[in-house]
TrEMBL record:
The keyword Transmembrane helix applies. Belongs to the cytochrome P450 family. InterPro entries: Cyt_P450, Cyt_P450_E_grp-I, Cyt_P450_sf. This is Cytochrome P450 superfamily protein. GO terms for molecular function: heme binding; iron ion binding; monooxygenase activity; oxidoreductase activity, acting on paired donors, with incorporation or reduction of molecular oxygen. Heme binds at residue 462. Keywords: Heme, Iron, Membrane, Metal-binding, Oxidoreductase, Transmembrane, Transmembrane helix. Its cofactor is heme. The chain crosses the membrane at residues 27-46.
Length: 526
């Protein structure tokens, strides 16, 4: 009886072992694969030099964020470091990044050795999910094709006329009525987030100019459109990728679809969906409905909808975020410098013919004659460039003009925000908002683009520069004549920025709007 029981137990154990063999093999295989992945990550980490391998003061401060004890923003800390550096160049080893605020080095990168400083594959990988193959994220033939087409279209009188009409319409029908309703003249005061207002205004303008589509998202009684919200999220989270000392971490999170990478994927999916719908609607309407918008012009040369999507998103980033950033900073500065606002009103009255507080109409041609307004706008972007820095990757070994050696594959960044705060570049009054520095005998005189790289320089100079300046000057002329804008709890003297591909003020810019005495209904630029 005992022998039979033992035999039965032996058979049962053998059967159980046989049944578990596939699961055991699978478990062993999974464990081995996991160990291999962990080993690969470790080896990659060693190859990429993790932060604790560099003990220099700059890298330690970056990794531990100890700089935040003295500076409100990373860009201000960088400006501090660059001011102290003999060649206005510093190396943040943990990022593999050489930072510069030296005009000679900017000239070297953007003109002298342009071929050696492309955007590069590492940078393109960071923004690939968001910007794809758009003009701001590619090099070579793809960049050249988009640039030539965009430059030709943006320089055409028909498009500029169309864009001026769009801006005038948005001012007349949306922005100015909104400011009137928020002003104290109607009884009671209402605070507006000026950054949000200008984002919606610029969003509407660029949608109509780029797509022939009016998103109708300016009314503050309605929430910001899902597209604009997703666009902000995608910009912010894409920018955060570049701040990681080891890119393997965000790439792993993207692979596993967790954390911020999951949020980024969801935001980009919404951007993709709406961009695809815009393309379908434009194709359905055909050029007969509106052949003046940029999308219609690009669709005449491109049949790949994914490629069109990337181009659309890139122009949205350029036309919405940069214009809104520039306008927000301008009126924040004006709140702290009412004398500049008064000088703007005097010039507009003199050039455009306004009188006694009555707003004057500034045509597109008269906008060009507003030299003080132009100088004030450039001075604003010297201190608060919409794009604070721009990075390239060295295609080969190089030596910068200040003697810094740059190894192949190194990220090299010129820092426009820091350059605007360099005594060596702008003199001892570099921290002051002084539009007069741009005027000679009352006329605006530009500086070298390598000293003032707000619109880049060389062959990569911004193709939408004139369009953006026209839009911003139109807003300035229309708003300053009829309203006093007072920032509440914010100052241009101590800004706080949020992460993003463009300069964004953290927490927005709440303002109080007051209608100026005897200011009548505006007739905006046409």
């Amino acid at each position: 009886m005992g022998a039979d029981a033992a035999a039965a137990l032996h058979v049962a154990v053998h059967a159980l072992a046989s049944s578990l063999q596939p699961q055991v093999v699978a478990a062993v295989f999974f464990a081995s694969a996991a160990c291999a992945v962990a080993l690969a990550v470790l080896l990659a980490s060693l190859r990429l030099r993790p932060p604790w391998w560099c003990a220099c003061a700059v890298c330690e401060a970056y990794v531990t964020a100890s700089w935040a004890g003295k500076f409100d923003n990373l860009c201000d800390w960088y400006a501090h470091l660059l001011r102290r550096a003999p060649g206005r160049t510093v190396h943040v080893h943990v990022l593999g990044n050489v930072l510069t605020a030296n005009p000679a080095t900017v000239d070297h990168m953007l003109r002298g050795r342009f071929d050696n400083y492309p955007k590069g594959a590492p940078f393109s990988a960071i923004l690939a999910d968001f910007l794809g193959r758009g003009i701001f994220n590619v090099d070579g033939d793809s960049w050249l094709f988009q640039r030539k087409l965009a430059a030709a279209e943006l320089a055409s009188p028909a498009l500029l006329c169309f864009a001026a009409g769009v801006v005038a319409s948005e001012l007349r029908c949306r922005l100015i009525p909104l400011l009137h309703s928020a002003s104290s003249g109607g009884g009671g005061e209402k605070l507006l987030d000026l950054q949000d207002v200008f984002r919606r205004f610029a969003f509407d303008c660029i949608c109509r100019i780029s797509f022939g589509l009016d998103p109708g998202c300016l009314e503050l009684s309605l929430p910001m459109s899902a597209f604009a919200d997703a666009f902000d999220t995608a910009s912010m989270l894409s920018a955060r990728r570049a701040t990681a000392p080891m890119h393997v971490f965000w790439k792993l999170k993207r692979l596993l679809n967790v954390g911020e990478e999951r949020e980024l994927r969801d935001a980009i999916r919404l951007v993709d969906t709406l961009a695809a719908e815009v393309i379908r609607q434009r194709r359905k309407l055909g050029t007969a409905a509106s052949g003046d918008d940029l999308l219609s012009r690009f669709m005449g040369s491109i049949n790949d909808d994914n490629y069109l999507r990337d181009i659309v998103v890139s122009f949205m980033l350029a036309g919405r975020d940069t214009v809104a950033s520039g306008l927000t900073a301008f009126f924040l500065l004006l709140s702290d410098h009412p004398d500049v606002a008064a000088a703007i009103r005097d010039e507009v009255s003199r050039v455009a013919g306004g009188r006694d507080g009555h707003p004057a109409a500034a045509t597109s041609e008269k906008l060009k004659d507003l030299h003080y307004v132009h100088a004030a706008l450039y001075e604003c972007m010297r201190l608060f460039p919409p794009v604070q820095f721009d990075s390239k990757f060295a295609a080969g070994d190089d030596t910068l003009p200040d003697g810094t050696f740059v190894a192949r594959g190194t990220r090299v960044t010129y820092h426009a925000y820091a350059m605007g705060r360099m005594e060596s570049v702008w003199g001892p009054d570099c921290a002051e908002f002084r539009p007069e520095r741009w005027l000679r005998d009352g006329r605006f005189v530009p500086e070298s683009p390598y000293r003032y790289p707000v619109f880049q320089g060389g062959v990569r100079v911004c193709v939408g520069k004139e369009l953006a300046i026209m839009e911003m000057k139109s807003v300035i002329v229309s708003v300053v004549q009829s309203f006093d804008i007072e920032a509440v709890g914010r100052s241009s003297r101590r800004p706080k920025f949020a992460p993003g591909l463009t300069a964004t003020f953290s927490g927005g810019v709440p303002v109080r709007v007051r209608r100026r005495a005897r200011a009548s209904a505006l007739r905006p630029p046409s």
